[in-house]
Structure formats: C-alpha cells, structure tokens
Design goal:
Blueprint lengths: L4 E4 L2 E4 L24 H30 E4 L3 E7 L2 E6 L3 E4 L5 E7 L3 E3 L4 E4 L5 E4 L3 E3 L4 H7 L3 H20 L4 H4 L3 H17 L5
Antiparallel strand pairs: 1-2, 3-6, 4-5, 4-7, 8-11, 9-10
Length: 205
C-alpha cells in the first residue's frame, strides 16, 4: 500500500514519520498506553505490613514495660515476690524494676498504724474490777519478718491483740486500784509497754 505524503515548502513529509495519525488509519486509535504494574501495589502492601508489625511490637513492649516497672511511694515499702517467695525488699521511694510476669510486689505501710482492741473487764489484786480501754500504735520496721510471721495487717491485729490483753491482765493483776489512780500509773503503763514490745518484736514491728 503506498504511504500517503504531503507537500510542504521544505519538501515531502512522510506521514509515518510524524506524530500525527495517518489519514488512512482507523479513527479512535491512539498510541500505546502505559499501564501501572504490580510494583506500586506491592510497595503499599509492604508498608502496611511494616506498620502493622511495628504497632504490634509497640503494644507488646508497652505491656512488658508496664509489667516490669513498679513505683514505691515514700510512705510505703515493698517486697518483690517470685512464685510466692520473697526475693528482695525495697524501702527507697521511686521507680523500680522487676522481672515481668513472674514477679509481683507486696506493699506495706511505713507510717504509724493503730491497734484498738475491744474494752476488757479486768480484776485487780485488791479484787476491784475495772474496764480497760487500751490501744496500741506500731510501725512495720522489718517488712520481710512481718511477711514471714503475720503476712498482713489483719494478721498482725489478730496476733497483737491477745498480746496486749495478756500484758494488761498480767501487770494490772498485781496492781491495786489506788496505785492505778495514783502517780504509779505511769510506771504501770511503761511496764505494760515494755512487755508488749518484747513480745511483738518478733513480728518485725
């Protein structure tokens, strides 16, 4: 088939060498289209996977850090436990660390605590009966010994209450009503306090 040409001032121009469509070419035909290959989609999928993995790692890291860190308040002391056994005692306030998931922390108060046993009726040496409303104040000074002997504040109240009661009965049973109401009362109270302290020392208080 002959190639159509056109005449210009400069001479003959071949339609096939121009950027225009040939008059004999069918209408609507264009040059080759550039299609986007699978590389762009693969890059997007890869980025999504990377972000997903990073997000999961950040969540796991946050869980591990939250399980490993613990804070001790200035009014508290702590015992780090592992499988029910005490591993170390922490008395300094601030942020501390432990093994995540396998260690837990028990907290004890450093402040002065109160024991208020019920009112007791007691018999003096002169057969006079009086009502004694006693109270005790204590502080946990050895948290490890406290844990080994009484475990909790409820446990120490159960053990310390009978000690206070026994000391009161033993000492007041040798005193008279006159001595309790006189200046000797200070000495009687000091004797009771020393007796209670001697028995309660084994609890770490």
């Amino acid at each position: 088939m002959p190639v159509p040409v056109t005449t210009t001032r400069r001479g003959l121009v071949n339609w096939a060498n121009t950027g225009f469509l040939s008059p004999l070419a069918p209408r609507g035909r264009r040059g080759p289209r550039v299609r986007r290959g699978p590389v762009g989609r693969g890059a997007k999928i890869m980025n999504r996977r990377v972000f997903l993995i990073l997000g999961i790692l950040a969540i796991v890291l946050g869980i591990v850090v939250s399980s490993a860190a613990f804070t001790v308040h200035q009014t508290s002391q702590a015992i780090v436990m592992q499988f029910g056994n005490p591993k170390r005692v922490v008395t300094d306030p601030g942020l501390h660390w432990k093994l995540p998931f396998i260690q837990n922390v028990l907290y004890y108060d450093k402040r002065m605590l109160n024991l208020d046993p019920p009112v007791e009726s007691m018999l003096l040496s002169d057969q006079r009966r009086i009502l004694v409303d006693a109270f005790a104040r204590y502080r946990i000074i050895d948290s490890l010994e406290f844990f080994k002997t009484v475990r909790t504040e409820a446990g120490v109240r159960q053990r310390l209450g009978p000690i206070v009661n026994a000391s009161l009965r033993g000492i007041l049973g040798n005193a008279t009503l006159a001595s309790v109401l006189s200046e000797e009362r200070t000495e009687i109270m000091a004797e009771i306090r020393e007796s209670v302290n001697a028995d309660a020392k084994r609890f770490g208080i």
